[in-house]
Amino acid sequence: MNTELKENRNRLFIASCLALVVTSLTFALRAKIEFVFGADYGLTKEEVGRAFGPAFWGFTLAMFVGGLIIDLVKTKTVIWFAFAMHLIGLITLILARDYTMLFLANVFIGLGNGSVEAACNPLVATIFPDQKTRMLNRFHVWFPGGIVIGGLLAWILMDNLNLSWQLLTGLLFIPLALYGFLFFKQRIPETERVMSGVSYKEMLRNVSAPYTIIATVLLMILIAAGWIDFDLSSNTTLVALGVIVILVFIEGKAINKMSLLLPFMVFCMFLTASTELGTNQWINALLERSGINPMIILVVITGLMAVGRFFAGPLVHRLNPTGVLLGSAIISLGGLYALSVSEGALMTMSSAIIFAIGVCYFWPTMLGFVAEYVPDSGALGLAIMGGAGMVATSLVLPIMGESIDTAGPQMTLRYMTVLPAILVVLFIGLLIYMRRKKAE
Questions:
Q1: What is the reported pLDDT for 111?
Q2: Are 169 and 154 in contact (CB under 8 A)?
Q3: 185-189 — which CB contacts under 8 Å span 24+ positions?
Q4: 11, 120, 127, 130 from 3: Cα distances, Å
Q5: d(CA 387, CA 68)
Q6: Going from the N-terminus, what domains does the chain have, and what CATH number goes with each?
Q7: Which residues make Cβ contacts (< 8 Å) with residue 102, sequence separation at least 6?
Q8: Which residues contact 386 (CB under 8 A, 6 or more apart)?
Q9: Chain Cα centroid distance, residue 132
Q10: Which residues form the Major facilitator superfamily (MFS) profile domain (predicted)?
Q11: Cβ(138)–Cβ(309) below 8 Å
């Protein structure tokens, strides 16, 4: 790494963190205004879930496209696209009063958020090549960190001072302006893949089954956006999953002759992201009768996540990424089940703390695992992982909304325990596989 890059990498890292703060503040904002758009503007929880969907599948689309073209258009271009989408999205959200405007606002915000991840994940991995998992955890401190800030602001401004949600939304322009200023006229390096001389074709090959994975996620986006009518509870879903598995095996093993480690991690990302983000986005509706303000619970959950991620280095070093993921799945399973049976403020808060510890390391450790063990997949590998997590969340949100309307909050939480239960089994298998690979 040259001297100039070493000197400005702290500024680039801070700018990246502020961009992620804007992303996370939009998550906190949605967790608060889902109630407003239901009570004041007459939307059902399923409609709110669908209107929020673009924030996730738009995120996915931006990450995938960004991961594919970032080395062609340069990282700086993707960053400024993120800035523009954030600006347009926030203005549209302030003007929103119905389903259509809320939907459009989340399209722009989702594209902005996804572009931040598409650009900043490989940027952090590039400027800290010997500390990838540690610094990606440090970077992703500001996802829960921003939600803490947003949750506290929502509680103070809306719950205590009775100010409008539009004022709360307007505060997001502050970190937006700051990250724009810090990135302005800065030299931003090529991605690690380009700097290490790995070709574009080799990057695609190291994804193992890039075309099948991308086609699958695009199909999920179309379903999440409502452009394809697909019953996720039908037998057709199982048939589709079987076909996808076969195609991944054919493309990855028979054609590219590569390990299926990255496709396996993509599938796990579907479940880890849905467990974390699906629950957090519906926190108001899920815990409104808990005896404690749901936004306070959200602040506690995300605050613990921020602290945990900041001090993730020693834990990752001691347990390695696979051990961290397995432990996270076990604890998040216990936390979700405890939330589903909790009664009263004390028990609910205790259960929420367990859940927070469980989901704390999911997102950054999944990215760190791919950056460390499949490094030649480059920015595309990281983009696929982040995009997969977001599109899965966009599918689970309306399902959770319908379940809350029909089965109630506690049963919905009980249903969600299925996801970390599956992850426990998958991560035990991954732990065995990685130990055998290391021994070989």
A1: 94
A2: no
A3: 186/8, 186/11, 186/12, 186/15, 187/4, 187/5, 187/8, 188/12, 188/74, 188/75, 188/76, 188/79, 188/123, 189/5, 189/75, 189/123, 189/126, 189/127
A4: 14, 21, 12, 16
A5: 12
A6: 3-439 (1.20.1250.20)
A7: 37, 43, 48, 51, 52, 93, 96
A8: 59, 60, 63, 114, 117, 118, 121, 269, 367
A9: 18
A10: 12-438
A11: yes
The phi-psi region of residue 320 (left if phi > 0; otherwise alpha if psi is between -120 and 50; otherwise beta) is left
Instruction: Name which of 117, 74, 133, 150 is nearest 384 in CA terms.
Output: 117
Specify the residue for token string 């523009």.
Answer: 84
Of the two residues 269 and 404, the one the predictor is more confident about is 269
CA distance 8 to 186: 8
Return the CA Rg of the chain: 20
Each residue of 195-222: pLDDT tens digit?
666 777 888 888 899 999 989 988 888 8
Alpha-carbon distance of 234 to 79, in angstroms, equals 40
Report d(CA 417, CA 355) in Å as an integer: 11
Write the burial class of residue 236 (CB in 10 Å: 0-12 exposed, 13-18 middle, 19+ buried): exposed
95, 99, 104, 106: CA torsion to nearest 10: 90
pLDDT digits (tens, 9 = 90+) for 233-262: 677 778 888 999 999 999 999 998 899 999
Residues ≥6 apart with Cβ < 8 Å to 305: 143, 144, 356, 359, 360
CA 76 remoteness from chain centre = 22
Local confidence band at 93 (pLDDT 50, 70, 90 cut-offs): very high
DSSP state of 358: H
Q: What is the pLDDT of residue 183?
A: 93
pLDDT digits (tens, 9 = 90+) for 134-182: 788 888 888 888 888 888 888 888 888 888 889 999 999 999 999 999 9
* Cα–Cα distance measured from residue 100 to residue 110, given in angstroms and rounded to the nearest whole number: 15
| Residues in contact with 418: Cβ distance below 8 Å, sequence separation at least 6, in sequence order | none
- Cα 29 from Cα 373, distance rounded (Å): 35
Angle of helix 54-73 versus helix 45-52 axis, rounded to 10: 0
Q: Who contacts 39 (Cβ-Cβ below 8 Å, separation ≥6)?
A: none
Of the candidates 131, 99, 85, 82, the residue with the CA atom closest to the CA atom of residue 34: 99
Q: How confident is the model at residue 330 (pLDDT cuts 50, 70, 90)?
A: very high
Distance CA 149, CA 325 (A): 26
Residue-level pLDDT at 144:
82
Task: Report angle CA 24, 29, 32 to the nearest 5 degrees.
Answer: 135
pLDDT at res. 352: 87
